[in-house]
Write a structure and sequence with these properties.
Blueprint lengths: L3 H11 L8 E4 L2 E4 L1 E4 L7 H15 L5 E3 L8 H12 L8 E6 L12 H10 L18 H15 L4 E7 L10 H21 L2 E7 L16 H14 L7 E7 L6 H4 L1 E5 L2 E4 H8 L2 E5 L13 H4 L7 H11 L3 E7 L3 H10 L7 H6 L3
Helix pairs in contact: 2-3, 2-12, 5-6, 6-7, 11-12
């Protein structure tokens, strides 16, 4: 697992190469504000090899955050991450690894009949109750998440996962009420609290696409205050002294800035954006789609670009995401070493200060 000493030693080795606040705190850890994402790409050996090379290059270049999920590329991304960590000339104690469970994963490749595969491997086997499924592909029941966590540990080849997310719980809102989703999350949080106490995960979080950045009236909305409340109840049920809920993940980029602009979460003095609520609640924020899955590689609005530092459009887009208040690390898909080389350069520039970032929205 990532340790305080391991990550701070890594920061000492690389910190002088980067700009202000490139390394940020996650509890006692020092982690890079740029992380490797592993979502995109075909489920092939060729892409696996590219990811292994890219991740190893990133780890040796000053990026010590790697994010994946069991369903990414039919479990191949997790396995590529594990091999890259083993191959890279970097201590495991310096590397912060996060993964996710919630979507039913294929194994190695997409089956010819996905529905039949899900029925055979998950429903008929008893691993998933049919009534727990949403859209035929998503489940966050405690026993299922428990099983997926074990599989992720095996895929990654690690003894402990640094951050384990419940993946896109808003998907369950297609099949059940919001209150039922909160109840199920509390049950699953309780299981994750138990796994944290057992040493299988260090912390857990909630990774979303829509839930935290849409208005309360939206069908995909979930309340951060309620999520935090349910995590506290889960910690108590597991007889832990404090909750291990420490992070959220959500999209944030120049075109998708809702996490900063939409005030949908009730704070002590009224509604707050997801970023501000998370910051005040002590939750770390990891941004996904930080360059809009490559769309921002070509162009960002001129009035925004001129405020940002960076030699390329991609670097400026990354620095926009890294500049948002409360963001711990911005994730960017990197499946080729040349992607890493360009992206890591973004960290050599200082991010926007708080006032300068606010001015973008004036």
């Amino acid at each position: 697992m990532a340790t305080d000493d391991g990550t701070y030693e890594y920061k000492l080795q690389h910190g002088d190469d980067f700009g202000r606040t490139y390394f940020r705190r996650f509890d006692g850890l020092a982690i890079s504000s740029l992380g490797v994402g592993t979502y995109l790409g075909d489920s092939t050996d060729e892409v696996d090899a590219r990811y292994r090379d890219a991740i190893a290059t990133a780890l040796e270049s000053g990026i010590n955050v790697v994010d994946t999920a069991i369903n990414y590329r039919c479990q191949r991304s997790e396995r590529a991450v594990g091999r890259a960590i083993e191959d890279a000339d970097v201590s495991r104690e310096a590397v912060f690894v996060s993964t996710k469970g919630g979507f039913l994963p294929f194994d190695g490749s997409r089956p010819d009949d996905p529905g039949e595969y899900v029925k055979r491997e998950f429903v008929d086997s008893g691993l998933v109750e049919r009534e727990d499924l949403a859209r035929g592909s998503h489940c966050i029941a405690p026993d299922f998440v428990d099983d997926q966590l074990d599989r992720s540990l095996d895929n990654l080849g690690v003894e402990e996962i640094d951050l384990y997310y419940v993946h896109n719980p808003e998907t369950q809102l297609h099949a059940r009420s919001r209150e039922e989703v909160y109840d199920r999350l509390e049950e699953t949080f309780t299981r994750l609290e138990e796994r944290a106490a057992e040493g299988d995960i260090s912390k857990y979080g909630v990774a979303t696409w829509n839930a935290f950045r849409v208005p309360e009236s939206d069908d995909q909305y979930l309340s951060l205050p309620e999520i935090v409340s349910r995590a506290r109840k889960a910690a108590k049920a597991a007889e832990n002294t404090a909750t291990h809920l420490r992070a959220i993940q959500l999209p944030f980029n120049v075109f998708m800035a809702d996490a900063f602009t939409v005030e949908a979460h009730e704070g002590p003095e009224g509604p707050q954006s997801a970023l501000w609520f998370a910051h005040e609640a002590g939750l770390n924020v990891f941004t996904s789609a930080s360059i809009a899955q490559g769309e921002l590689a070509a162009e960002i609005p001129e009035d925004v670009a001129e405020r940002l530092k960076g030699d390329t459009t991609v670097q400026r887009a990354i620095n926009f995401a890294r500049s948002a208040p409360g963001v711990t690390s911005s994730l960017v898909g990197m499946s080729r070493p040349e992607h890493v080389e360009e992206n890591v350069e973004a960290g050599r520039f200082d991010p926007l200060g708080a006032d300068a970032f606010d001015a973008v929205f004036e």
